[in-house]
What we know:
single chain; Immunoglobulin-like; 4-stranded antiparallel β-sheet; about 500 residues; 18 helices
Amino acid sequence: MAPVIERERDASATPRPAPRRVIPIQPTTDEVALYEIRKKIQPRAVHGWYARWRVVLVFATQIVFYGLPWLSWNGRQAVLFDLAARKFYLFGGVFWPQDVIYLAVLLIICALSLFLFTAVAGRLWCGYACPQTVYTEIFMWIERTIEGDRVARLRLDGAPMSPRKFALRSAKHAAWLAVALWTGYTFVGYFTPIHVLGSNVLALSPGPWEAFWILFYSAATYGNAGWLREQVCKYMCPYARFQSVMFDRDTLVITYDRERGDPRGGRSKAADPKEKGLGDCVDCGICVQVCPTGIDIRNGLQHECIGCAACIDACDQVMDRMGYAPGLIRYTTQNALDRHLSRVDQWRRALRPRTIVYSVVLLAIVAVAAWSLATRVPLRVDVIRDRGALARETVPGQIENVYRVQIMNTDETPRRYTLDAAGLPGLAVAGVSQPVELDPASTRLIAVRLIAPLEPSGVEPPGPGTHRVEVTVRAVDDPHVVRHEPSTFIIPR
């Protein structure tokens, strides 16, 4: 019994823990914001100098994009990338896969131009010429035309579904789909002759790849410009992430003049802001309402800013109504803002080592590319010794080698060519009727025999082994159209 009593005494001496009280944790504001669903941005329409420039560039880029496939040149489409025939037509020029160097040069020029423009004036490409920006502007213009201004669209978003709302939304999305499908059709028209493509589409018989790319590009345009919009610029485009590498303190960026604008506060037009201890910013929030990415530029430069300058136009309008000087939000540099530089000094500092190097390299590459295109010979020749045919002595004292010669007429005029060979005494071309005729922008593969005497008269005979020779292909009607291609000639032992 003693051990039992002892155990009971020990158990009674140990205090039992109190039952836990479960308190529900209320989510904080930060936690809600972290998981908050994206709010649709309804930008306010704005008018001004920069807005007019955006409209001009939207029209200019789309006239080029939609119009080029319909231009004719020498009886064919002026700009056509014929992947099946491996020919790229660009107005009067015909480029082949061997001309890929020009594509590489074009990409280098585009990259250097982007670096230069960004170093001088920030994200000009994003704000005015990027396809995402351009098509978003087009889709937002359609949305404003059908659904009304910003207040009307916000009211429509919050209203329950009704016949009117359904009709407006249906009309908007139908217009978006029409623009997207026409964009996809035009895009494919650069790779398939657009008249042929149009006939096939009207007959509901486009090729499988043509149908796929029309629908794919249309869906991309509809989704990116109609639904994603600023999300592409903020999260999908890598340019926003590495743009700061190309910025410095003398780069023109959209900036809020904090020294002039703060402290912010509302006031009447007749009030003196200095007496109230306020800056020029009336804290109207219009700069945020017109921003397509929904940021507040007064918080400083942010990676979401695409440099469209809509906030500049909006703020200048408010400053004009209040009777204040424009430029509270403006294009300026960090050094100009901190040191109060004049406009002349600000632009003078645009010529700095970085921009000078970019400009010199860019101009040099453009000049070399232009010279190469201007002096480009519309003829390509490949000479390959036929390894399946051995060098042999056809007649006593005559050695024959067989070659496969590919002649490419890269011009859009028919040509006739002659073939000659040099490098060995008495070397002659045989086995082909000359001149060789080629159609415009065509290629021809011919078998050519080169014959050389073993005992040429008056000169030392070539010894056995491999000898370097040169095949010359020259246009009959233009002696400047000529190619010299090296090869080898084997004399057996």
